[in-house]
Amino acid sequence: MSTEQNPDHDDLVHIGPEMAVAEADVHPDESGAFVRGTSLWRDAWRRLLKNKLAFLGLVVVVIVTIASIIGPTVIKAVFGFTPDYIPTHNINLTRSLPPFTGPNGEFTWNHPMGTDNAGRDQFARVLQGGQISLFVGILSTLVSLLIGVTYGAVAGYLGGRVDNVMMRIVDVLYSLPYVIVVIVLLSMFRSQTPRGQLTLLFIALGSVSWLTMARIVRGQVLSLKNQEFVLAARATGVSNTRIIFRHLIPNTLGPVIVYATLTIPQIMLTEAFLSFLGFGVQAPLASWGSLASDGIQNIAIFPWQLIFPGVTMALTLFSLNFLGDGLRDALDPQMRMV
Amino acid sequence: MTNLLEVKNLRTYFETDDGVVKAVDGISFDLKRGQTLGIVGESGSGKSVTNLSIIRLIPEPPGKIVSGEVVFNGNDLLLQSNEAIRKIRGRRIAMIFQDPMTSLNPFMKISKQLMEMTQLHLGHTKTQARAHAIRMLETVGIPDAHARADSYPHEFSGGMRQRVMIAMALSCEPELLIADEPTTALDVTIQAQILELIKKLKRETGTSVILITHDLGVVAGMTDHVIVMYAGKIFEQAPTNELFAKPGNPYTKGLLRSVPDPTAEQGKLYQIPGLPPDVAHLKPGCPFAPRCDRVEEICKQEFPPFVQLNADHHSLCHFAREVYSESGGTPA
């Protein structure tokens, strides 16, 4: 009698592997078969990567940011001059050298974007300008985030009369022409040091750009606060402050991130505009706006002095806008596909 | 047994453009420790408002608790400060809501939401709270609780979410659990599981339960006492067996007749004619009069008395005794 013909044994042979499979299902940690759900953010990230234009925007933004941060230091190490270095030797008829050109008209890698009126390296200046422009854009956006999100969430959650008063204040501020407010602020508190002026600039920009953010967040909170999870949180004894900051604000993050990404280029543009008018960044610091302002004076003879900062700025702003649009599509739950 | 909760003459009104809506109008009941009270009634009869009033979660404005007492363990909750009431919510009186799909914060991990409870009320550290959260998830029967704790609500099914809600409600071992239609949004098999779970946990922890529902089958299976509400008033109040066997109110009778009977041969399913009244514009007389099948002239003129039929059985009807006798009871 062979073992195969033994019915009991036969059963055992079959049951063995099946039980092993069943056990693997029950203990996913050991087998690694447990399917991890995708989080909302990972989902959004995947959708963002699918959007070619947004992804390109992201790449450009990252490159420009990194180049701006480390660029001036690298140039100092390689070529030995800082963005505000004015050469004292070998002065030619003009200090403005075309791209890739040395003082005697020879080819050189020293100044890939040429030099400005004073002979400073344009490439280093553009990178340093990028530092300032991005810095102003991001920091002012953070200021507007901080004020706008808190203000909007408090107004929306408390509702009633408080909401009414708070939002009418926003309406009044909205009706003021915002560039003029910034110009008045900047000229009233004019600072003596370039750094002081810079601080003033982003306080001024941040303090007028939170209004839309406050409205967006308030709208979101208004629709969220009547959902049952807020009632459930209140029924478990959570305080109002905690409900606003832990339960409501995280739920508004999608639109907030999108709007913040779109605020950065908007503020950078305003900064450029102000610097162009001479209210913003002061020399020897440079921003793309002030570089363009310097460059436009010599546009007929030294066009590179306008073209390079202008093109860099346009490229960055385009990229930020594409990225913002892409984020909006990625975070919009209506668009969500499995 | 002592009374855990005594609600006395509670009135909660809502001011609307259409007039004052008397959502709850003079409700009184007691709940003993360890017992389950069922509150049944049609939509808009004031069941949920009663319970939101107990833990003071009525949105103000437009709502307002006009009068009454809610005595919980000897203290009137309506007189407590907001601070004090927050310490009671979740810690000593917990709630489960109707729709598990929207009752969990979609942006917070399950574990975080559970941990919030015990960190807030029991002063747990993160590690303690997390361990407790996982233990609670295991108690309510979430398989593989350790791995699932860090999921987001959208990764859970409706039944699992309701289990999470129950875990959350029970994590501080409250003395009173208010379950506001805990199974309405779930399908029938899950309903049975959830009810079984509530029953089991109640047995183990000795929690008192108020169960709001419009499913009479659930009431029959789960509760010790029943309150039938209509138009913001208590229409009938009795021990569960008594109410089902000998209803003393035409409305209760109508409700019981509308339950589908699987043994019935054929015929149309009974329904109470008409719709619940608009509580903003109640006419004098009995609010149920326009729908009642034994309505008489007096019902349209005078508000009915709250008749005591038995030691523990009350009914709001002009003909309570007659109805009770017809059902086979002997009025005291």
Structure summary:
Chain A is mostly helical and 338 residues long. Chain A has helices at residues 7-26, 28-31, 40-50, 52-79, 122-158, 160-175, 178-188, 194-208, 210-224, 228-235, 240-277, 288-296, 304-331.
List keywords for this structure.
heterodimer, A: 338 residues, mainly alpha, disordered N terminus, B: 332 residues, alpha/beta, four-stranded antiparallel β-sheet
Describe, in plain words, how this protein is organized in 3D.
Chain A has 338 residues and is mainly α. Helix content of chain A is 71%, strand content 0%. Chain A has helices at residues 7-26, 28-31, 40-50, 52-79, 122-158, 160-175, 178-188, 194-208, 210-224, 228-235, 240-277, 288-296, 304-331. In chain A, helix 5 packs parallel to helix 8, helix 5 (122-158) runs parallel beside helix 13 and helix 11 (240-277) runs antiparallel to helix 13 (304-331). The longest helix of chain A has 38 residues, at 240-277. In chain A, 39% of the residues are buried. Residues 1-34 of chain A have low confidence and may be disordered. Chain B is globular. An eight-stranded mixed sheet of chain B has the order 6-7-8-3-9-10-12-11, sandwiched between helices. Chain B has a four-stranded antiparallel sheet with strand order 2-1-4-5. Chain B has 332 residues and is an alpha/beta fold. Chains A and B meet through helix 10 and helix 11 of A and helix 2, helix 3 and helix 6 of B.
Q: What is the terminal-to-terminal distance of chain A?
A: 57 Å
Largest sheet report of chain B? 8 strands, mixed
Largest interface: A-B, 25 and 35 residues
- Measured as a percent range, the helix fraction of chain B is 25-40%
